[in-house]
Amino acid sequence: MGNHKSAKKRSIQSKVKNTVNIQYLTKIRTNMNKFNKSLKANNSEEVTKSLQVINSIMAKAVKKGILKKQYMSRKLSSLSNQIKKN
Question: Which structural domains are found in the chain, ordered by start?
């Protein structure tokens, strides 16, 4: 870390931003696992609910610049195709 005041501030800011980004990615991963479990259990109510939650979290992550828009749309398309197959 640098000795300048701005470098110290930037270091703190990047640590905070990194933890927030990790929290978003963890939420997404957790809800993906819930989605897959409910899909295997053929619980249609739970599947649609978890898909809505995943959509919401991913949209917020895209808005904050954590994920790319194309990644979100590709994932949601993949998940909806999985629903159609079951």
Answer: 5-85 (1.20.58.110)
